[in-house]
Predict the 3D structure of the following.
Amino acid sequence: MPDFKILESALLDIRFPIARYHLVFVVTKDIHFNGYSGSAIRGAFGHALRASSCMLNTDESNNNEECRTCPYQDCCTYRKVFEPKLPSGQVLQKFSKIPVPYVIEAPVSSKSTYKRGEKFSFNIVLCGRALEDFLNIIDALRSAMSKDIGHGRAEFESIYLVEQSGRMESVYSEKTFSIKSHESLIRLFPLTSVSRVKLSFITPLRIQDNSRIIKPDEITARTLLITLLRRVDLILKFHCDIDLKLPFKEISELLNNVEIKCEMAFKDWERFSNRQNQRMKLGGYVGNVYLSNLPGFMMPLIQLGEYLHVGKNAVFGLGSYRIYLV
């Protein structure tokens, strides 16, 4: 059996290249979101980042097949952020794709219309190599919002680094209209004396089994936590050059001893897919999940999940939770 104390100690020593930013815009033309705004933001962001990154600068470059055969893909910001390529010699086992190194955290309110003059804001979490392309990513988001978002437009006003305490530090200089130098690293807190926590899901949790969303009374602690660990492990390994070498077999056996209690309700969300020209269901479960008898090494990994989310459609902001000690 691996020494999990060593793993826990290692996790607490690492400074992870992960940061959450809060972007604020002023609406210049009324915005109306046709469903969940996180999907619209991601779509507009993708189009803008591809347009600004493409070195071919041709109409054909908007074709996915052209991107896959492009000779410049290794240095393309769009490719690295939206369609990361598996490094040579690496195997994903049963995973079909590498998770992307960002998460859009859109407003969770039911508000869908923003009038001219109102402010609209959202968060974006960036990991590892995405932070290296920080300026290109922020420029693409500014461009996307100023051109067409929800049939409207918005102009960039400011950007903040959301610190681990929740405090927001401005990283935008109004004098020079530029981004200030800042530290984009997080450190996890030791919570070794805690064996019971509450995860409060504020956006729908979608864990799938054979293309079916698992109901709360079917979710086991092992299923939830292994789903989280797989995502955390892949993002750290492929985007942050941090290989935790997690012993999943032994961890899986250990997690069978963790107790779980779910107090969740179904929340039906939708997004509109421009590619498929139809509404797509994003429904899942929100509410509280109580976990007891947690092994100590799990607490740092659960803290990472507050940034990286868990479950299907995490990139849109689904599977977002907050940790409470109970």
